[in-house]
Specification:
This protein has one domain: Roll (Nuclear Transport Factor 2, Chain: A), CATH 3.10.450. By secondary structure, it is mainly β. The chain contains 1 helix and 7 strands.
């Protein structure tokens, strides 16, 4: 997860992309938690309406151009495994997704 987040932020920085507070949000909910063998599983639902802007002139937010205004949702199952007494993310499986919709029913 850390690697994916760093890659996403590096892409946005390299391409002059940014989110602006107050322009969408990312809402999530934990749907289910369970233990199976040595793993914990957490199922989440995320609804992402964050608008990403292309920065034309960094000193003038008024000239930003909308780069991505999709409203997408994702249901994901996360597997965590314990190592040395701490839980670590092991795997993420995307169960369902919906482009331009809210499958989470927020």
């Amino acid at each position: 997860m850390d690697t994916a987040t760093r890659e996403l932020m590096a892409f946005r920085l390299e391409n002059n992309l940014r989110a602006v507070r107050g322009n969408g949000e990312a809402r999530y909910r934990i749907e289910k938690v369970g233990i199976e063998g040595g793993s914990a599983f957490v199922t989440t639902c995320l609804y992402d309406t964050v608008i990403i802007f292309d920065i034309a002139d960094p000193t003038d937010p008024g000239d930003d151009i909308v780069y991505n205004e999709e409203k997408n949702s994702y249901e994901t199952r996360w597997e965590l495994r314990q190592r040395e007494g701490r839980w670590y993310l092991f795997e993420r499986v995307d169960l369902r997704s919906l482009k331009d919709g809210d499958l989470c029913a927020f």
